[in-house]
Design brief:
The complex is a heterodimer of chains A (114) and B (112).
Chain A: E1 4-7, E2 10-13, E3 19-25, E4 31-37, E5 43-49, E6 56-57, E7 68-72, E8 75-80, E9 89-96, E10 103-105, E11 109-113
Parallel strand pairs in A: 2-11
Antiparallel strand pairs in A: 1-3, 3-8, 4-5, 4-9, 5-6, 7-8, 9-10, 9-11
Chain B: E1 4-7, E2 10-14, E3 19-25, E4 32-38, E5 44-51, E6 56-59, E7 62-67, E8 72-77, E9 86-91, E10 106-111
Classes of the chains: A mainly beta (114), B mainly beta (112).
């Protein structure tokens, strides 16, 4: 398995501001992902965080809105930029130790934008 | 593009019952499928990973089956307990990728 922590666990932010969410894993992993879960919905993949290169974004998500960093094999950040109330969601990171293996999720960051 | 459907959307049962949760997916060219549970306001807990070469995978009171040809997976919960109350999510990957696609889940409530 993997032990994953996320910071902050929750936050309330004002419209137009930005929030950076951190994801830390207890050991090196090959793949790291960021998901969004809007209220009452299932999870949607935002992007794959690539170590040492630009993240790979899914359709409907752009780097200017959701910049991602992954400086090493145990850490990644997701920034939600220029927030609006529609960005209110739970943001989750997940990791995969080896290709095709089991994915593990962090506890999530609950974001409310007012 | 992979699409996932889970039936039923919600299920309420008394403690002790055996349960079957169903998952169907449109693209059967998958190499594995994962089942998760999510407690309200929390992250996801991995329950079972079933490889495409397997037909079943068991962990305690949980048993998952996979029928790739028909695009179906089933999660069987034996002797349900109130602690099993959660949303159960099925997630096969998108074709050729490691990116999971999630269904909308089955919300389970087990009453004492």
């Amino acid at each position: 398995s993997a032990v994953i922590s996320q910071k902050p666990s929750r936050d309330i932010c004002q419209r137009g501001t930005s929030l950076t969410i951190q994801c830390q894993v207890d050991s090196q992993v090959t793949m790291m992902f960021w998901y969004r879960q809007q209220p009452g919905q299932s999870l949607t993949l935002i992007a794959t965080a690539n170590q040492g290169s630009e993240a790979t974004y899914e359709s409907g998500f752009v780097i200017d809105k959701f910049p991602i960093s992954r400086p090493n094999l145990t850490f990644s950040t997701l920034t939600v930029s220029n927030m609006s109330p529609e960005d209110s969601s739970i943001y989750l990171c997940s990791v995969e130790r080896s290709p095709g293996g089991e994915q593990y999720f962090g506890p999530g960051t609950r974001l409310t934008v007012t | 593009k992979q699409e996932v459907t889970q039936i039923p959307a919600a299920l309420s049962v008394p403690e002790g019952e055996n349960l079957v949760l169903n998952c169907s997916f449109t693209d059967s060219a998958i190499y594995n499928l994962q089942w998760f549970r999510q407690d309200p306001g929390k992250g996801l807990t991995s329950l079972l990973l079933i490889q495409s070469s397997q037909r079943e995978q068991t962990s305690g009171r949980l048993n998952a089956s996979l029928d790739k040809s028909s695009g179906r997976s089933t999660l069987y919960i034996a002797a349900s307990q109130p602690g099993d109350s959660a949303t159960y999510l099925c997630a096969p990957p998108n074709t050729g990728f490691q990116k999971l696609v999630f269904g909308t889940g089955t919300r389970l409530l087990v009453s004492p």
